[in-house]
Design goal:
The complex is a heterodimer. Chain A is an alpha+beta fold. Classes of the chains: A alpha+beta, B alpha+beta. The interface between A and B is large, with 87 and 87 residues.
């Protein structure tokens, strides 16, 4: 909402610099986004009267003018404009003047003739031909106003207003008006508010004989008020009115349209004017549209309506979509003779849904949808008629149509001063509260507050507290600490998540943050088969595009996408992780299962499967995971079938890790081998081992034996280790694989694996017999799975 | 013979004193003290001495031996010291050469600052609550006093799953979830991802992070809200940070306030950074609307509360002077490595 300070001064005389005005209104709740001092950049530009126009002796396209500018001597100005003539009043930028945009004007010579300045066009003064209806785009502005040579052009043209731009919150449609902001201004500065009672003289004829109105849906239309004007004379509005519209950001059009806009800006009440002769049957019905009913709106688009929409209709068809836009057919034309001013109040939610459905948000609809005051329709329509008379734009017909639907009673609330003080943490008297409330139009009798009808947002004592607070001053509310004590702490799962993050960081991985969305294309790139369970995603019904159309069911594609971006940005190596959710739809539930994952991604110099696996193992170790199983997984389509493993704890899948499938790498345009893992944090949390207990440091020496074993190539080493572990029992301290060998001395299809086995008892030194016995058992167990000692 | 011994002593001590090499020293030891050494040779002649002379010469011989041994030991010590010195000298390295670094990962800048914010509130007795990102319309809007036809819905471009399920547009639904589950006193913050259907550009992202705060107890006042957020601002921005509370409107708080921080660049004068206002908005806040409390089964006559919400990305962008929001989601290592 752009507020002209000149317009504001009709209602409240406030005398303070714009910066302070902006600050104080902001602090009382009407946020000022900025302000513009019109003509601020214009200096030393005055009104001039052209005394003579002569041809330039040396240039065909130039003329030399003598211009009276209120000085003893006229000034000589050379111009190329063709619309100048003796006697014309024009804006003259004198030597040393500045124009909007910081343009400086100095005297000079044009083809040898001195020119002591410049005559200005509309655009040079940063105004438009709409503001000055007689003016032309490419010529000097010929001033058609009452002014004298030498007068500052800013006052002569009304370029001396200050316009303050407000950000009005959706609960305050009353402040989308000059009067509403005047009320706030008056209350903020403690100044009197002078409201104007519109007076209409015309009473010839009776509107009731010319028009009938019926509200068929009183829920959606709480009031319909109408006045008529005949013998309309369409012409431009006077300058003062155009200036105010211009300051408010509204383009002047003609007197009637300008009046409806003026009243809307002044009162906040949208108005609609339509041609009476196109109202078939002289009857207006405010009714719901019929299914499929059509109307051509003022913007020239044919709209198809549906039954929940409210229309203003004549006997035959809709003439307007209620509160949104009028029909083209009944609009004001040059031949319009008699008009109807409609000033009505429509249901906010109805206007909102209709506007949304038709995809047409107008100045009018955006006001109605916030909920307007049904008591505003009469003063607004009278103000429009008053302006018609003031402008001589037509003759107001006597009588007023004012049909009421369901108008709510004014809200009444109890003034509970004690509660308000306690709620805000302040201590002011009830009298002071009453004073504040009365300043902004509330009435208080005893303890009963009557809320003004234009403040439908106030419906609870907390709302009253806000009114008190903002005029008492938010800055005056003291600053206190919350009473009572509270213990702030992390939950076990939050600590678990932090531990996972810290571990990944200490492993050298960089933390990343990716979208939760996924594109079905990324599922394709990750080679998920068409029937993959993971393609069953939460679908966004109104996505920005395909890329953000699904909620991801796996975090791996997001990681691969990130690796790809880094690879293609020439980052030579990468180790990354993300702690983020995947979203799994749950049959029969409205909301999906959001599962927090740790996702790891690697490529570059040292990256291989076992580096990844080492990171995963360290993470599992730090997270105190129970004993887990790593099983080869050749069925995961995203990974190399021979280089992928799934991790299980007690048969529960915890995660997957592997070398990314070469075709997937190709799909993601990653030109090197890459590795990724995804682990489910919640499953890991649920499968933590018992809390760690201290084990006494060993008192007795360990015995170590090295074993060189030979087995078939395809036997996983985990199988050997499992056998050794089971066979050696309690005295096994550790098994360390320190070599794996294929080649000379080892038959084809076999491999040799070397282990260092460390045995120790906590209560004694192991005897040779014990050690030998254990080794014998181990060898026997190995023999059982066809593993032999290397000879 | 006595004379001989004295001569040996003198010669030996003199020779040993001059030695600067371990090998030479060993040779000297052999020369004087070895089985075929000079001293041994003399002692072999002891048999020829008289019984009177024998003890005297024997004692002298022992003395000479002792002296020589001592001289050898002393020189040996000196040689060792020198050798160590030389070794150390030869091992000198150029300590100005670059160190060999171990790769350590870095936290994403968003989460570095989030951790900081969490620490501040944990220190003030707040716990951290978490909740779903795919959320019921009821929690995201209706329970927050934003019914279906409320104009505030237009300002939040919402991603819908269906009529009843949305991607949460704010972390505020967590207020409701916490209040439904937990009886006052409540003191929580709830950080997390939120979603708006904004087209991606330098200042908009369909995914971003908010941090919600909620305090509910008997006798909580708006002055407490001011106090809490002032401490927060000073902890995050430094002791000289100044904030102001400005009336605003949120459907689920009443009174509502936006909180501005005095512009760091111009200190309230107005400059390009703060668009001439002198202040920069950092968060929204207010007293929990009594309707919202009672909707969660908390009696607004008995309890009151305040809530606030802040956007993480904007705080981090301002802190590091990052102009483009997209960098947070692109995860280029050259970006991540800077923090």
């Amino acid at each position: 909402m752009n507020l002209s300070q000149r317009w504001l001064s009709d209602f409240v005389k406030v005398d303070c610099p714009p910066r302070e005005y902006a600050h104080r209104l902001t602090m009382s709740g009407s946020k000022v986004e900025g302000y513009e001092i019109e003509g601020e950049e214009i200096t030393n530009v005055v009104v001039g009267r052209i005394l003579s126009v002569e041809k330039h002796p040396d240039a065909d396209k130039l003329v030399v003018c003598q211009v009276e500018v209120g000085r003893d001597e006229p000034v000589q100005i050379v111009t190329g404009a063709t619309n100048v003539f003796a006697g014309a009043l024009v804006p003259v930028a004198l030597d040393g003047s500045t124009l909007p945009g910081g343009v400086k004007i100095k005297k000079g010579k044009l083809r040898g003739i001195v020119s002591n300045g410049m005559m200005c066009s509309v655009s040079e003064l940063n105004v438009t031909v709409n503001d000055f209806p007689g003016a032309i785009e490419d010529g000097i502005l010929i001033i058609d106003e009452d002014c004298t040579p030498g007068e500052d052009i800013r006052t002569a043209l009304g370029l001396d207003d200050t316009v303050v731009e407000f950000e009005i919150t959706s609960n305050r449609p009353d402040c989308l008006s000059v009067i509403g902001l005047a009320r706030e201004t008056a209350a903020t500065f403690g100044l009197p508010l002078t409201l104007h009672e519109p007076a209409v003289k015309g009473n010839e004829g009776d509107i009731h004989e010319m028009l009938q109105v019926e509200i068929l849906n009183p829920k959606l239309c709480s009031r319909y008020t109408a006045k008529m004007v005949k013998n309309i004379k369409i012409e431009p509005s006077p300058r003062w009115l155009r200036e105010r519209l211009r300051a408010s950001g509204v383009r002047p059009i003609n007197n009637i349209v300008d009046i409806t806009n003026y009243v809307m800006l002044e009162y906040g009440q949208p108005m609609h004017a339509f041609d009476h002769k196109y109202v078939n049957g002289a009857k207006i019905n405010v009714r719901n549209a019929a299914e499929g009913e059509k109307i051509m709106t003022l913007d020239g688009i044919e709209r198809t309506l549906s039954p929940e929409m409210l229309v203003i209709a004549d006997e035959k068809a809709p003439v307007a979509v209620a509160g949104i836009m009028g029909g083209e057919f009944s609009g004001i034309m040059d031949d319009t003779n008699t008009i109807v001013f409609e000033s009505a109040c429509f249901s906010g939610s109805s206007v909102r849904t209709t506007a949304k459905k038709l995809g047409m948000r107008t100045e009018s609809s955006s006001r109605f949808e916030k909920g307007l005051d049904p008591h505003m329709t009469v003063p607004a329509v009278l103000r429009a008629c008053e302006l018609v008379e003031m402008l001589g734009a037509g003759e107001v017909v006597g009588g007023i149509i004012d049909i009421k639907g369901e108008i709510p009673e004014p809200t009444k609330l109890m003034l509970d001063a004690g509660w308000i003080n306690r709620f805000l943490g302040i201590d002011i008297s009830k009298e002071e509260m009453v004073k504040i409330l009365e300043k902004i139009g509330f009435t208080v009798e005893g303890d009963v507050i009557t809320v003004p009808t234009f403040r439908a947002d106030v419906e609870h004592k907390a709302d009253v507290a806000e009114e008190i607070a903002r005029f008492y001053g938010y800055d005056k509310i003291p600053v206190t600490a919350i009473k009572g004590t509270a213990e702030g702490r992390l939950t076990e799962t939050q600590k678990f998540e932090r531990l996972a993050r810290e571990t990944m960081l200490s492993l050298g991985a960089y933390e990343i943050n990716t979208y939760s969305f996924i594109s079905p294309k990324l599922y394709d790139k990750a080679m998920l088969p068409a029937d993959s369970q993971l393609r069953n995603s939460v679908v966004i019904s109104n996505p920005l595009g395909e890329d953000t159309s699904l909620m991801r069911t796996t975090t791996i594609p997001s990681m691969l996408d990130t690796l790809s971006r880094n690879y293609n940005n020439r980052n030579l190596e990468a180790a990354m992780f993300e702690i983020g959710n995947r979203y799994l739809p749950v049959e029969g539930e409205a909301l999906p299962d959001e599962r927090q994952q740790v996702t790891i991604g690697l490529y570059g110099r040292d990256a291989d499967f076992f580096l990844l696996k080492g990171m995963v193992e360290t993470l599992l170790d730090r997270l105190n995971a129970k004993e887990y199983d790593v099983q080869p997984d050749s069925g995961n389509p995203t990974f190399h079938p021979g280089r992928c493993a799934s991790i299980y704890i007690d048969g529960q899948l915890v995660g997957v890790m592997g070398e990314v499938h070469p075709l997937v790498l190709q799909n993601f345009e990653i030109g090197v081998k890459a590795y990724a893992a995804e682990l489910d944090l919640r499953t890991l949390f649920a499968n933590r081992a018992a809390e760690k207990q201290y084990k006494p440091l060993p008192k007795y020496p360990a015995t170590t034996r090295d074993l060189a074993l030979v087995c078939d190539e395809d036997v996983p080493v985990a199988k050997l280790q499992k056998a050794i572990r089971q066979a050696s029992g309690k005295i096994l301290e550790s098994i360390e694989m320190f070599d794996i060998y294929r080649g000379k001395q080892i038959p084809d299809g076999k491999k040799s694996i070397a282990y260092k086995i460390s045995l120790r008892a906590s209560d004694r030194t192991l005897t040779d017999e014990e050690t030998n016995g254990a080794m014998k058992k181990i060898l026997k167990a190995l023999a059982d799975i066809d593993v032999t000692l290397r000879s | 013979m006595k004379q001989q011994l004295e001569t040996i002593r003198e010669q030996a001590k003199e020779a040993i004193g001059r030695v600067s090499d371990a090998k030479v020293l060993e040779d000297l030891r052999v020369k004087y003290l070895g089985k075929k050494g000079e001293l041994t040779a003399i002692l072999k002649q002891m048999g020829r001495l008289s019984a009177d002379e024998r003890p005297v010469i024997g004692q002298l011989a022992n003395e000479v031996r002792g002296d020589i041994e001592q001289a050898i030991a002393a020189t040996n010590e000196k040689l060792k010291e020198r050798m160590l010195e030389e070794k150390l000298k030869s091992e000198t390295i150029d300590v100005t050469m670059p160190g060999r670094r171990t790769m350590v990962g870095k936290k994403h800048p968003l989460f570095q600052v989030l951790d900081e914010i969490e620490e501040i509130f944990l220190g003030m007795g707040f716990s951290i609550a978490e909740g779903p990102e795919v959320e019921l319309d009821y929690y995201n809007f209706e329970a927050l006093n934003i019914p279906k036809d409320h104009p505030a819905r237009d300002t939040q471009d919402t991603f819908y799953i269906d009529d009843n399920v949305v991607l949460r547009t704010q972390t505020s639904p967590m207020q409701i979830r916490v209040m439904e589950k937990q009886a006052p006193p409540i003191r929580i913050i709830s950080p997390g991802r939120v979603y708006r259907s904004d087209t991606v550009d330098a200042t908009h992202s369909p995914v971003f992070h908010q941090i919600e705060g909620l305090v509910v107890d008997k006798g909580v006042t708006m002055a407490d809200l001011k106090g809490t957020l002032e401490i927060f601002a000073k902890r995050l921005y430094g002791e000289d940070a100044q904030i102001r509370f400005r009336p605003h409107h949120f459907p689920f708080t009443e009174p509502s306030a936006e909180v501005d921080i005095m512009c760091f660049a111009c200190h309230g004068e107005g400059c390009r950074l703060c668009k001439g206002e002198g202040w920069i908005e950092i968060l929204g806040s207010g007293m929990v609307h009594p309707k919202v409390l009672s909707g969660c089964g908390i009696d607004p006559e008995e309890y009151s509360g305040f809530a606030f919400g802040l956007g993480l990305e904007r705080i981090v962008m301002r802190r590091y002077n990052i102009q483009d929001l997209r960098l947070f989601f692109e995860n280029d290592l050259r970006f991540l490595d800077q923090f």
